[in-house]
């Protein structure tokens, strides 16, 4: 599958500092010279003992929450996966394969699925990993007051635990469950530790490949290999030092000097990293950015205005200016080559400013008549591109920054905004998040396009290995793309850099998997 699915209840947007980093000049060498030793000093710990293989990871998405129920399934799930494991994981083809569950099966009707947990597993606090732990994790994700995942689990009615088995009684036939319950949506914490969710949020206890030794909230986490992880024999990293990445312009220097040996990379720094002799690579993913419209509010209650905006968007400009050529244009939430991508819908609204102006005129709007407030959570160069492109067709856009943007966005009070997502392992979940009547990314709730509900239900009823599954899924994508609530623009890359001592990572779409990864001795 080519490079480039999970939504979350909060935006997958970087801070103003990071977004603005595209235009920040490199720091002076004197400052960098001072910074690197300082970071080296604060990074020193027992985990860096001689002879150990230590991953030193600078992350732009350092978790603000370590309770996976609260953290949701945005970009931070990759870091949380150091500590937590899930029932399933994703392979290089994007398919669900065993993780904590060694196998599973559906009943004949497709409305009940039983997961069989591997025997002998335990959480890092010694509690057993079993059917009861799975049941508790699902219940917490569905019912905990601050859960960011409850909307993802609507197909699960009740759960029965019997020893190592967890049987899920579904509210509808749904063959997407194994795809859904991976590390994005159901990272499983110790039920004992989760009895105090506030403590768990900064003292995580899971059954993943590593165990937390030290955690400085928002700044640094020191972890060691979990000898009780079910696949510990294939984890060759002894220790992990995870730090919150400094300004994008300093990451390359940190990689060069050994402060880090792995980092997510801002596209603006890719060329510098390559010139420094680092390995720069793009991990497959499902990222998609869009312009969100509320069709329940003027002027977007007129289809001609919506279509005019579609034709006013030059997607290539987003790619060139924001990803430095590393991203891709997109007009749907899936990448080309992925099973859910609908080729019939490709380029349905090509860039055509003249047609955009004509549609606005037909709707009775003269140039300058339409004035819009584009509300976003932080400074974002995407907004400036949207402002410029719409100005070219006679629509005046004023950018409004509201750090509490999430409240009106999810309350569906805004008329016009931006959103970026990392997708979902379950294609159906991505579709319903964007186009469903209760979808968190659907600013036009409760609106949904005609035929979408039926098309999605048909996908759920179709086993993943059925011969007609691709066609059924693509038909649901096609129905969703009839929505007037979103205009997809571009896909930013999952771009990383590492030093050459670190071996290549598995190409699991959107995930960071440390299985089999090695660090050369003495590095």
Automatic annotation (TrEMBL):
<keyword id="KW-0732">Signal</keyword>
<protein>
    <submittedName>
        <fullName>ABC transporter substrate-binding protein</fullName>
    </submittedName>
</protein>
<comment type="similarity">
    <text>Belongs to the bacterial solute-binding protein 5 family.</text>
</comment>
<keyword id="KW-0813">Transport</keyword>
<dbReference type="InterPro" id="IPR039424">
    <property type="entry name" value="SBP_5"/>
</dbReference>
<dbReference type="InterPro" id="IPR000914">
    <property type="entry name" value="SBP_5_dom"/>
</dbReference>
<dbReference type="Pfam" id="PF00496">
    <property type="entry name" value="SBP_bac_5"/>
</dbReference>
<feature type="domain" description="Solute-binding protein family 5">
    <location>
        <begin position="96"/>
        <end position="423"/>
    </location>
</feature>
């Amino acid at each position: 599958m080519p490079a480039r699915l999970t939504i979350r209840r909060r935006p997958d947007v970087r801070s103003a500092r990071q977004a603005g980093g595209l235009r920040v000049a490199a720091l002076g060498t004197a400052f960098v010279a001072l910074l690197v030793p300082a970071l080296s000093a604060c990074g020193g710990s027992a985990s860096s003992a001689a002879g150990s293989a230590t991953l030193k990871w600078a992350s732009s998405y350092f978790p603000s929450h370590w309770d996976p129920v609260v953290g949701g399934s945005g970009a931070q799930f990759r870091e949380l996966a150091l500590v937590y494991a899930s029932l399933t994981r994703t392979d290089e083809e994007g398919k669900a394969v065993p993780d904590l569950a060694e196998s599973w099966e559906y009943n004949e009707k497709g409305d009940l699925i039983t997961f069989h947990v591997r025997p002998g597993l335990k959480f890092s606090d010694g509690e057993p990993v079993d059917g009861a732990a799975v049941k508790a994790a699902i219940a917490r994700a569905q019912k905990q007051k601050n859960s960011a995942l409850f909307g993802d689990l609507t197909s699960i009615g009740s759960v029965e635990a019997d020893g190592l088995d967890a049987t899920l009684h579904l509210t509808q036939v749904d063959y997407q469950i194994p795809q859904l319950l991976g590390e994005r949506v159901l990272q499983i914490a110790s039920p004992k530790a989760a009895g105090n969710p506030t403590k768990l949020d900064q003292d995580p206890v899971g059954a993943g490949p590593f165990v937390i030794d030290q955690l400085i909230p928002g700044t640094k986490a020191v972890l060691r290999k979990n000898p009780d992880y079910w696949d510990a024999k294939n984890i060759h990293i002894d220790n992990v030092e995870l730090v919150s990445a400094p300004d994008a312009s300093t990451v390359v220097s940190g990689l060069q000097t050994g402060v880090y040996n792995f980092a997510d990379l801002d596209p603006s720094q890719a060329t510098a990293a390559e010139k420094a002799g680092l390995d720069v690579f793009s991990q497959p993913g499902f990222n998609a950015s869009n312009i969100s419209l509320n069709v329940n509010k003027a002027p977007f209650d007129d289809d001609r205005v919506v279509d005019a905006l579609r034709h006013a968007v030059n997607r290539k400009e987003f790619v060139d200016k924001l990803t430095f050529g590393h991203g891709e244009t997109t007009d749907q939430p899936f990448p080309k080559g992925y099973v859910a991508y609908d080729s019939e819908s490709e380029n349905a609204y090509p860039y055509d400013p003249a047609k955009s102006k004509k549609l606005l005129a037909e709707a009775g709007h003269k140039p300058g008549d339409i004035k819009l407030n584009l509300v976003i959570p932080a400074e974002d160069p995407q907004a400036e591109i949207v402002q410029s492109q719409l100005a070219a067709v006679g629509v005046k856009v004023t950018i409004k920054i509201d750090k509490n943007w999430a409240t009106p966005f999810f309350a569906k009070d805004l008329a016009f905004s931006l959103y970026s997502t990392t997708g979902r392992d379950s294609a159906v979940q991505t579709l319903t998040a964007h186009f469903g009547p209760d979808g968190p990314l659907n600013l036009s709730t409760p609106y949904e396009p005609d035929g979408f509900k039926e098309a999605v239900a048909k996908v759920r009823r179709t086993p993943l290995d059925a011969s007609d599954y691709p066609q059924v899924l693509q038909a649901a994508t096609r129905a969703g793309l009839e929505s007037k609530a979103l205009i997809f623009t571009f896909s930013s890359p999952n771009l990383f850099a590492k030093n050459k001592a670190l071996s290549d990572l598995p190409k699991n779409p959107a995930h960071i998997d440390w299985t089999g990864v090695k660090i050369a001795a003495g590095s």
